[in-house]
Design goal:
This protein has 179 residues and is α/β, with parallel strands linked by helices. The chain is built from six helices and five strands. The protein binds flavin mononucleotide (FMN). The site of flavin mononucleotide has 18 residues, from helix 1.
Length: 179
């Protein structure tokens, strides 16, 4: 059965802060009766786009890797959650690499996603610590014609335990319910 919501989770760290918030998101979504499929992109074989353009003729990428699993899920899902720690002022390279591969869906066999959301964790407390990731996400939403359904930024985090008692846990559950 196809998922309503696809999660692309970009942290390479298992059981870290990003994963903890993703689990809360999944709880909220499941309680609301939604079907969720999570892909931990750092654990998958996903090669970077070569920019060869052949996918715009054939609809299929020249790379033979795990990306078709994600694209197939996004061709029947309503909504997409991007989850990532901030690495050097942006989403992780692993998540960006997967997003670049959306290129093969722009002309042939497009994605069915209508709404997206962003969940970020970072170590820095500065008000602009998540800015680069948020700008990237919003531009992608506009380009894909997706509604931005919400952004959660959990800052000053160096371990998942630092989320204990914090409002972002409930915010993640709510986002899961409403996305
Ligand atoms: C390679 C690397 C780069 C990072 N760059 C930033 C950064 O630019 N800004 C920031 O606020 N935190 C940065 N951090 C901290 C992480 O974003 C933060 O600890 C995050 O919550 C880790 O999520 P995780 O537990 O899911 O791995 C960086 C961490 C690593 C390992």
């Amino acid at each position: 059965m196809s998922a309503n919501i696809v999660i692309l989770s970009g942290s390479p760290r298992k059981n870290g802060s990003t994963e903890r918030l993703v689990r809360e998101f999944i709880k909220g979504a499941s309680d609301a009766g939604k079907r969720v499929a999570e892909y931990r992109v750092a654990d998958m074989k996903i090669a970077p786009c070569l920019g060869c353009g052949s996918c715009h003729q054939s609809g299929v990428c020249v790379h033979k890797d795990d990306m078709p699993q994600i694209l197939d899920a996004l061709r029947s899902a309503d909504a997409l959650l991007f989850a990532s720690p901030v690495y050097y002022w942006n989403i992780t390279a692993q998540l960006k690499t997967a997003i670049d591969r959306f290129y093969s869906s722009l002309r042939i066999n497009p994605l069915t996603v209508k709404r997206a959301a962003l969940l970020l964790t970072c170590g820095n407390a500065a008000p602009d610590a998540c800015e680069g990731s948020v700008v990237t996400y919003k531009r992608i939403c506009r380009h894909q014609n997706w509604e931005d359904a919400g952004i959660i930024t959990a800052q000053s985090l160096h371990s998942p335990e630092m989320l204990d008692g914090r409002a972002e846990l409930e915010q993640a559950r709510e986002l899961g319910k409403n996305l």
